[in-house]
Amino acid sequence: MKTLIPIGVLLLTTLIPLNGGGTEPVDPTNPSKSTTNKQKSKVINATLLVQTESLNPDSVSFRTVPKPGISYTSVKQGVLALRNTLRKQYEGGNKKGAIAKGRQVFTTKLLNDIIPYWYGTEWDFNGYTNTPGTGTIACGYFVSTTLKHMGVNVNRYHLAQQAALNEIKSLQTNGNYHQYHNMTLDQFITKAKSELKPGLYVIGLDFHVGYFLIRNNEAYFIHSDYFSDKVRVELASESNAIESNSYYLGDITNNDELIRKWITGETVEIVRN
Q1: Global pTM value
Q2: φ, ψ for residue 112 (rounded to 5)?
Q3: Per-residue pLDDT tens over the stretch 234-257
Q4: Where are the domains of the chain?
Q5: What are 77-93's pLDDT values in tens digits?
Q6: What is the helix (H) or strand (E) element at residue 212, kind and residue range?
Q7: Strands (DSSP E) found in the chain
C-alpha cells in the first residue's frame, strides 16, 4: 500500500514545482545572496546506514554501503586520479578509447564509491550540505553534489536550483533525453526497461529528481527521499516518491558528451528557462 504524502510535503510540492533545492541557499559564487537556510549539525554514522527494508544489499550488483576504512576524501582523490589518467589518454589521441573507458569508470565510481557515503544523509527541502552524513540535502543538491564530487565541472548550486527538466537538459547536452507521460508507475517502469539501455540516468519528476538505474532487468531509484527523510536506494516499483504525471530521463552512462566534458574538465553549462 502506498503511503500518503505528509501534509507538510504536499504543501511544499504544490507551491514550488520541479525545484531541486527549495529556498535558494548561499551561493559561494555570489556571497551577497541572502538565505533562510540553516544547516543542521546532526552527524550520521555512515557505517550504520539502512537502505530499505525490501532491498537486501547482498542481492544487488552495486555497493549500498561505503568501502570500509576509506575516507570520503580519499575516495574523491582516487576518482580524480582515474579521470586524470583518462585525460592523458584522450589528449594523447585515443579519444574514442578514453570515452569508452570513461563510461564504465564514471558509472562504477559514482555508484560504488561516491553515492554509498551519502546513504542515510538527512533530507531537507532546503538542504545543501557538501559533506555526506552531515547536515541535510535536498533532492536536486544530492544529484548535483555527487556529480560535482565525481569531478564534473558544474556549479552544484546553479544546477540544483533549476527545474528537474532543466537539470536533465544541462547534462544531456545533445537534447536527446527520454520522456514518458500519462501512465502508471508500472507502465513507466516496464517501458523504460524495454526501451532504454542498461545504465544510470538522472530522472526528473513533477516535484522530485534523483538517479534511475536499470541493471539486470531491474529498476532502482536513488534519491534524497522526502518520505523516509534520508538519501536511499530502493526498487523503483516500491518507491512512494517516484510516481509522477511525467517522467524525464537523461543518460549518464551512455552520455558520451557528458563523459567527454568530465574527462577534459570542460564546464557543463546550466540550462535555464
Answers
A1: 0.82
A2: -100, -20
A3: 999 999 999 999 999 999 999 999
A4: 7-20+41-264
A5: 999 999 999 999 999 99
A6: strand 209-215
A7: 122-123, 136-137, 178-181, 199-204, 209-215, 218-225, 230-235, 246-251
